[in-house]
Specification:
It contains 14 helices and 7 strands. It is of the alpha/beta class. A 7-stranded mixed beta sheet has the order 3-2-1-4-5-7-6, sandwiched between helices. It comes from Aetokthonos hydrillicola Thurmond2011.
Length: about 350
């Protein structure tokens, strides 16, 4: 048998007669309150600290601000829903005197799953401190006791219930956050703007088979699917913790070690940010995985273009013989990565 919560109580009054009286003035005021929250929501979702070099401390601060933004969005959604109801004369009586954000913030806190009936009763038994201030704020909304609080919360939830977060997305976000500040061998995720640039240079088309051979946590792969959702994408990643993230993201993992497990001319495009210590090996192998006419678009370390050892000189000659094209990236292109590096880099494109 389903047990009712106090927040499942009917939000209507005791009378069976319902007379709709539209209140466009109140609707306009509520929409004005809702719109005024947008600047704060945007600032908290995209704080300046999030644009600085990532550290665990900065990430925790940015995460906290993002959570605050989500709470403000819930209040904003309530305000817009109340405005819509007021405009057609359907705003529940218990909500008609709500006039500011603070009143809704208190109701939101009390509507949390960590609160129960006894917790709400304690608020109205207190005569000092924060709870006493809450009482004064709610009195201005004509809410004087715990029963009215329960009725108001039920009415708000009936007007607009917040969407539940996808548990898989929450897990992915948690796992990615835990990576910040942890050193993984040659793990330098590609910044978002650079991912988009690589994808653009690959000139992908629907139906193409595409390979991302050192996928990390999937930044390039996600950019590929964002811009070209109808390609057939395969990914490879050698580190098990990163493969777990790729699996949660629903990416098609075809192997762990690109150099030993992936073979054959199967792909029309390869887009890569390979481990620089094995850059030449990865690049030659990626080229061999292309079908005739395919393209390899890869991040390359600047050292490849000036080191004097034989294998680098031979590789440069190989690039020349294959009419490779390269583009120098701006200094610090990877400083905004979650695992930043100041290594100078280029984009390298090779057609087969």
């Amino acid at each position: 048998m389903h047990q009712l919560s106090i927040f499942d109580l009917p939000a209507t009054g005791h009378t069976s007669l319902c007379i709709r009286i539209p209140n466009p003035y109140q609707a306009a005021k509520l929409r004005q309150l809702a719109a005024a929250l947008q600047e704060s929501i945007d600032a908290k979702k995209n704080p300046a600290i999030a644009q600085q070099r990532p550290t665990r401390r900065r990430l925790r601060i940015a995460e906290g601000m993002y959570e605050e933004a989500k709470l403000l969005q819930q209040i904003q959604s309530w305000l817009y829903a109340m405005a819509d109801a007021a405009e057609v004369g359907e705003l529940p009586e218990i909500l008609k005197s709500i006039s500011n954000k603070s009143q809704l913030e208190i109701l939101r806190k009390m509507s949390s799953t960590t609160w129960n009936e006894e917790d709400i009763k304690k608020v109205f038994k207190s005569d000092k401190g924060e709870y006493a201030r809450w009482q004064l704020t709610l009195k201005r909304a004509n809410i004087y006791n715990w029963q009215q609080v329960s009725q108001a919360i039920a009415a708000l939830k009936q007007l607009h219930s917040p969407c539940k977060e996808d548990p898989v997305e929450v897990q992915i976000h948690r796992m990615e956050t835990e990576l910040v500040g942890i050193k993984l061998h040659e793990f330098f995720p590609t910044p978002r703007d650079l991912c988009a640039r690589l994808v653009k240079l690959a000139h992908l088309q629907s139906g193409m088979r595409v390979l991302e051979p050192s996928s990390g946590k999937g930044d390039i792969a996600q950019a590929i699917l964002h811009h070209h959702p109808y390609v057939h994408l395969d990914v490879v990643e050698i580190q098990s913790d990163l493969r777990k993230i790729l699996k949660l993201k629903g990416l098609n993992i075809i192997g762990c070690d690109f150099l030993t497990e992936v073979n054959g001319e199967h792909w029309q495009a390869v887009i890569a940010n390979p481990p620089f210590s094995k850059f030449i090996e990865h690049t030659l192998h990626a080229y061999n995985c292309l079908v005739s006419g395919g393209s390899l678009v890869t991040i390359a370390p600047e050292s490849v273009f000036f080191r004097s050892e034989n294998k680098f000189a031979e590789f440069r000659q190989w690039l020349k013989s294959h009419n490779a094209w390269d583009e120098k990236l701006a200094d610090g292109s990877f400083l905004n990565s979650t695992h930043p590096t100041n290594v100078a880099t280029r984009i390298l494109i090779i057609k087969k």
